[in-house]
Design goal:
Layout (H helix, E strand, L loop, with lengths): L7 H9 L10 E4 L4 E3 L13 E4 L2 H6 L3 E2 L11 H16 L6 H8 L3 H12 L3 H19 L4 H7 L5 H12 L3 H12 L1
Parallel strand pairs: 2-4
Antiparallel strand pairs: 1-2, 1-3
Helix pairs in contact: 3-5, 3-6, 6-8, 6-9
Length: 189
């Protein structure tokens, strides 16, 4: 990441605005707490006279500051990206369960609104859309490699009804599950 030269006042304005566009360009350290943060940290803002800015995490750590537990500047990923990775992992491992945005947000420890907003911002799709895509991909795999019925596959992949399964499958593959299986088997011969 290219370093930019900002004055103390410019960096101060960035942390007051919680501007995530400057994450990684500089770090804010607070003398009284001995903690350093990203510019986007949502923690209570310190007094201006207690702030020191560093260009790198290692500079802040060498000066005796530790990473904030809220914005986690010591992680490679921004906290939003870390949350998204956790959600993707959770959905991938629990796609068979009847999940709602509320269930997912409780598991992640954030509000449903925040979860959906962050997830869409990072991935351009909602958690629900990703969950459906995971389920459809698993269903396609089962259609190719098992003789399970469409109803069994629908239930095994977490769909609550066969009509929802058929509709989602058709939207993804432009064919019904049965047509998909027949076409795939023809290609294997």
């Amino acid at each position: 990441m290219d370093k930019i030269n900002l004055s103390f006042e410019e960096m101060w304005q960035r942390i007051i605005a919680c501007d995530h566009n400057y994450d990684g360009y500089f770090y804010t350290a607070v003398k009284t707490t001995k903690i350093y943060c990203r510019p986007s940290c949502k923690s209570r803002k310190p007094k201006k006279e207690n702030v020191v800015f560093y260009k790198t995490k290692s500079e802040a750590e060498k000066a005796g500051f530790r990473a904030c537990k809220r914005c986690k500047p010591d992680l490679q990923l921004a906290p939003q990206e870390d949350l998204v990775e956790q959600v993707i992992s959770f959905l991938t491992n629990n796609y068979r369960q009847p999940l709602t945005l509320e269930n997912i947000s409780i598991h992640m420890g954030v509000s449903p609104f925040h979860l959906e907003r962050v997830f869409k911002k990072v991935t351009s799709e909602s958690p629900r859309q990703l969950l459906e895509r995971i389920r459809i991909e698993k269903a396609a795999h089962l259609l190719k490699h098992t003789n399970a019925s469409n109803l069994e596959i629908s239930l095994q992949t977490g769909f609550q009804s066969t009509s929802t399964f058929y509709k989602a499958f058709r939207n993804s593959f432009q064919s019904s599950p049965s047509e998909f299986r027949k076409q795939w088997r023809k290609m294997q011969v």
